[in-house]
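for the recovery benchmark. tokens below, seq after
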């Protein structure tokens, strides 16, 4: 029995079992969208003329508002200082008025002590204690006694009521005090009533005269 021999395949003849399929690359492949290139980081847009003009306008308004603020701040500070000065002036005026009303009481105590020089009893001690208590109260308020004897006459602090020609003091100086003067700081509460020394006059025999 003869052997079966395989029939050789013709290489030029296509195989019926092999199917060749041609694909449309343009139809079936997804389109690749072109991505936008990102803008470089760190770069700012260059302002145009309109933006620069607006920036100048805003800066000018800010400078104007700042100038107004500084002026108002200065005005308020001046107003605050003026109110404080007026308040202190009113307070000092009230204290000065109170002191002026109490000075005659102090004068009467001093006159009482002068008339009771020979009295060493409890009455004099009591008057001295009350007078000292009153003076201490006034002194705590800043009251100072003016003692101008022997000092040049000052019309702003003294009130001349008599001329003194005894020659003990140089002309133009205070020779004696009839009523004490008092001050409170740089404020004159009451001028001192004084006698002012003048050149002795031979015709007046050393007697003083009223001014």
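predicted aa per position
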């Amino acid at each position: 029995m003869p052997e079966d021999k395989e029939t050789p395949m013709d290489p030029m003849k296509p195989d019926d079992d092999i199917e060749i399929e041609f694909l449309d690359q343009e139809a079936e492949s997804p389109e690749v969208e072109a991505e936008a290139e990102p803008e470089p980081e760190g770069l700012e847009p260059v302002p145009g003329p309109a933006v620069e003009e607006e920036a100048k306008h805003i800066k000018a308004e800010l400078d104007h508002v700042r100038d107004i603020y500084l002026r108002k701040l200065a005005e308020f500070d001046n107003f605050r200082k003026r109110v404080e000065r007026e308040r202190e002036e009113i307070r000092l005026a009230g204290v000065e008025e109170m002191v002026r009303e109490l000075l005659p009481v102090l004068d009467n105590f001093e006159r009482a002590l002068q008339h009771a020089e020979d009295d060493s009893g409890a009455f004099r001690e009591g008057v001295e204690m009350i007078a000292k208590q009153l003076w201490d109260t006034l002194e705590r308020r800043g009251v100072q006694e003016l003692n101008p004897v022997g000092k040049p006459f000052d019309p702003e602090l003294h009130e001349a009521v008599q001329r003194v020609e005894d020659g003990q003091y140089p002309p133009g100086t205070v020779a004696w005090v009839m009523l004490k003067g008092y001050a409170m700081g740089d404020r004159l509460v009451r001028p001192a009533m004084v006698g002012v020394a003048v050149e002795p006059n031979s015709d007046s025999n050393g007697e003083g005269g009223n001014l």
